[in-house]
Amino acid sequence: MVDTVAQAGAYLHHLAFESSQPDRLAAFYGDIMQMEVARISDREWRCEGPARRMVVVPGQDKKLAYAGLAVRDADGLKLIRDRAESEGVAIHASPSPYFREGAFAVKDPDGNLIVFGLSKPEYVKAMGWPRANHAMPIWGPVQHLTYRTQNMDGFYDFYHRKLGFRMVDRVIKQDGTIATIFVTSNHEHHTIAAFAGDRTGMDHHSYEAGEWNYLRDWCEHFASRKVQLMWGPGRHGPGHNLFAFIEDPDGNWIEISAELEVIHDRPCEDWPHEPRSLNTWGKAILRS
Ligand SMILES: [Fe+2]
User: Fold this and answer.
1) How many angstroms is it from 208 CA to the middle of ligand 1?
2) How remote is the CA of residue 101 from the centroid of ligand 1, in Å?
3) Is this prediction's pTM over 0.90?
4) Which of 4, 54, 127, 287 is 20 to 30 A from 176, alpha carbon to alpha carbon?
């Protein structure tokens, strides 16, 4: 089966989170994640920085409202829609303000809403950020989203088998059950992943700073705002990326990453479910 989503070159373009205190959450992303905050209405706040966007809507804390994956071109978007329809996946309307007409949404077995679309021109991911003058805002495009799930088979079936995200790495427990699956929709090691656990929802989302120095700059910025790291810095096994984690006021985990593996044509690999797979440098946070 063709990895249709990967073939179409989709990337994580924006996220939308529910919150019981949307104004507080939006202000956090404005100050701590260096985004401009706009209150669009009582139902929507938008936070925008270079190649990173977060929509906040009123609702339940730590709940994904939707994730927006932008596709390279209209042909790719049609490929994904045709594949989803041929697999019997229900198509929903796009709630995203960032995508052009023709965007559509699908819902995974845990109820997570994924929107595929073409970015409006003013929001395309421009990588020509002036790095010689990178101090503010610090470079860090939104890059991946991960879930906690009690239905790993459903995750595999929906994202890989039905939509055609490419399998990249798995973490396998001693009893042979799957602890983690990483899938990608382009050349990045993973754009979505799922950790087996005793709850259903989000695990974390990540901003790819690219280089170690930018990860350092993020940590210095957090320190200046008295936001302590909750994990890291460390280096993951799968993806080989450097990482540091903080938590937002709702309890969502935010990762700043660097040196994430670029995938070309290697096959899916299995990793043992042990602390070193999560952090080769130090302490691990095992989800199950
Ligand atoms: Fe991550």
Assistant:
1) 9
2) 30
3) yes
4) 4
